[in-house]
């Protein structure tokens, strides 16, 4: 007979449990991925009865589970598996109560199919396993999961390891980094090792440098007490970012299993070039966010010292000393309260050995980039060089996917000019192009705001003009570069891609003549926005927009 599974969550009344763990467990349950007869036992100092805890989690699931996945009957069924035991995890005396509850759920004298999850402050990471051992709960089929940070430094990490090794066998211990659970992070391995096209290029001969970025547009969100003792280096670099470095750089395992994968990761860590005094001075940048508008600066946050030197931003250049990567710099960076939220790996390939095409208008062909984005809008993008339409042979970098739109909109070019009717020709996450029936005087470099409507809502684009192409009599195409990345626009592009795949109406759109298509798509819709509405909103000039771009996720030279 199969032993019943009991998941025991220490810190069950805390933020991590309600925001992440319970929604994740509910998702597993709704997908039929939890065994029949399972139980979840919450442990915490806050007093709850089983019924009250079930009600509490039910209300939190409605907040933190995606609305499309919420099924009330299924959520209530899931919550019926929840139980709660009030006890202080730091005190060993209460652990006999825990053993009694486990026997109650399983009907077994010594239940063994147990999973302990530590959703607690790191100060309890070394205490709980020792108390479990004292209560005789470190049984052969028991597992324990501990999240980062695993130790404060090398010495404390080694001490923790010795504690866990004295209580559990290594195969029972799971030290997890939730970044590795993201689909795109796992897709890095599939992308590299399931596709032969890039493997010959994945080395120092063809790759110039690699950028790994994880920035947020939020501050520390009231976690001053924690962050003062951690900082960006301990919070993000030594776990999340280094893990992504390893996924990008590791060698293919001979057999894809947990042990071989771990061994290849360890080889990358062993190959990391030790930081020198020169590196500390020249190749590492630390900083703090300051007050901006209504947002407080780091030193004004609760539980933060007024003279704090704790970094909320760090960027560094590291090297990997092995045959594959010697001489290829890896630029890693992370920060709080940045202008955008993005986690991505950007692989910059070397330029062509000989440049055949001249730089025209200041637009030189750029080296190829491969972007593996983990969040938001997970996906993989390859940027390649393409000929700019029109006379001559100007080559510009293009993304692998550029959405052809053909919708009407309203645009204002410059700050003192009237709004005009345009057709949005195409759109990507970095730029857009629109068509008008007249030439715009001195257009290059001018700011643009364009509003269009689709899916019954308005979309707002801002950028500046970088090129003009006259495609036919009284048809002018203006190419624009966005001043800031826009998550809503990225979501729109994703929706259009899914729509095209679903109905096949646009499946061959790229094979059609780009500009002949515009006439076919020129059927009038209701106005997106009237001119007076647009007049009331000021379009910032390009210089101001550029100055606001504190973070440039594509140019390590601005940071390092």
Summarize the structure in words:
- With 560 residues, this protein is α/β, with parallel strands linked by helices.
- The protein folds into 3 domains: 6-176, Rossmann fold (3-Layer(aba) Sandwich), CATH 3.40.50; 180-370, Dihydrodipicolinate Reductase, domain 2; 401-548, predicted glycosyltransferase like domains (Thrombin, subunit H, Beta Barrel).
- Helix content is 29%, strand content 25%.
- It is built from 15 helices and 20 strands.
- A hairpin with a 2-residue loop joins strand 19 (457-472) and strand 20.
- The radius of gyration is 28 Å and the shape is globular.
User: What's the CATH class of the largest domain, please?
Assistant: Alpha Beta
Rg from C-alpha positions?
28 Å
CATH topology of the largest domain: Dihydrodipicolinate Reductase, domain 2
Point out poorly predicted stretches. 504-560
How many strands, what sense, and barrel or not for the largest sheet?
A: 8 strands, mixed
CATH superfamily of the largest domain: Dihydrodipicolinate Reductase, domain 2
Describe the strand arrangement of the main beta sheet, using strand numbers.
8-9-10-7-11-12-13-14
What would you call the shape? globular
Number of strands: 20
Strand coverage percent:
25-35%
> Helix- and strand-based class?
alpha/beta
How many helices? The count is 15
Mean pLDDT: 81
How many discrete structural domains? 3
């Amino acid at each position: 007979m199969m032993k019943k599974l009991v998941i025991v969550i220490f810190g069950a009344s805390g933020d991590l449990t309600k925001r992440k763990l319970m929604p994740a467990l509910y998702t597993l349950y709704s997908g039929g991925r939890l065994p029949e007869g399972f139980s979840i036992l919450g442990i915490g100092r806050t007093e709850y009865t089983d019924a009250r805890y079930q009600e509490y989690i039910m209300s939190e699931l409605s907040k933190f589970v995606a609305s499309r996945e919420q099924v009330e009957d299924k959520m209530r069924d899931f919550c019926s598996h929840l139980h709660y035991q009030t006890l202080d995890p730091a005190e060993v005396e209460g652990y006999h109560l825990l053993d009694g509850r486990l026997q109650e759920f399983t009907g077994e004298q010594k239940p063994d199919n147990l999973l302990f999850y530590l959703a607690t402050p790191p100060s309890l990471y070394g205490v709980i396993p020792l108390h479990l051992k004292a209560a005789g709960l470190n049984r052969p089929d028991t597992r324990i999961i501990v999240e980062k940070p695993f130790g404060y430094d090398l010495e404390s990490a080694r001490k923790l390891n010795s504690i866990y090794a004295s209580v559990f066998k290594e195969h029972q211990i799971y030290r997890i980094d939730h970044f590795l659970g993201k689909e795109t992070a796992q897709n890095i391995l599939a992308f590299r090792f399931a596709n032969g096209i890039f493997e010959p290029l994945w080395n120092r001969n063809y790759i110039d440098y690699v950028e790994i970025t994880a920035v947020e547009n939020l501050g520390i969100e009231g976690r001053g007490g924690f962050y003062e003792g951690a900082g960006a280096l301990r919070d993000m670099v030594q776990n999340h970012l280094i893990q992504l470095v390893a996924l990008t750089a590791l060698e293919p395992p001979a057999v894809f299993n947990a042990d071989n994968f771990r061994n290849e990761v360890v080889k990358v860590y062993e190959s990391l070039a030790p930081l020198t005094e020169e590196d500390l001075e020249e190749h590492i940048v630390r900083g703090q966010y300051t007050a901006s508008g209504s947002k407080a600066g780091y030193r004004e946050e609760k539980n933060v010292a007024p003279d704090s030197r704790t970094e909320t931003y760090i960027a560094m250049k590291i090297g990997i000393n092995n045959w594959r990567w010697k001489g290829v710099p890896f630029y890693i960076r992370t920060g709080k309260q940045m202008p955008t939220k993005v986690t991505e790996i950007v692989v910059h390939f070397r330029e062509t050995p000989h440049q055949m095409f001249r730089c025209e208008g200041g637009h030189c062909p750029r080296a190829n980039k491969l972007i593996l984005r983990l969040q938001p809008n997970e996906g993989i993008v390859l940027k390649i060089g393409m000929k700019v339409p029109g006379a001559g042979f100007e080559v510009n970098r293009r993304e692998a996917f550029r959405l052809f739109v053909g919708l009407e909109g309203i645009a204002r070019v410059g700050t003192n000019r009237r709004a005009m009717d345009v057709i949005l020709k195409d759109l990507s996450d970095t730029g857009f192009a629109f068509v008008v029936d007249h030439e715009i005087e001195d257009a290059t470099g001018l700011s643009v705001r364009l509003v269009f409507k689709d899916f019954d809502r308005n979309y707002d684009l801002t950028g500046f003009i970088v090129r003009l192409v006259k495609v036919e009599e009284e048809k002018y195409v203006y190419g624009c570069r966005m001043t800031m990345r826009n998550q809503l626009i990225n979501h729109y592009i994703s929706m259009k891609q899914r729509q095209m795949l679903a109905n096949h109406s646009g499946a061959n759109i790229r094979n059609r003549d780009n500009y002949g298509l515009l006439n076919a798509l020129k059927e009038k819709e209701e106005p997106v926005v009237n001119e007076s509405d647009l007049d009331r909103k000021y379009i910032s000039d390009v210089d101001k927009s550029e100055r606001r771009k504190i973070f440039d996720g594509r140019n390590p030279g601005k940071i390092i």
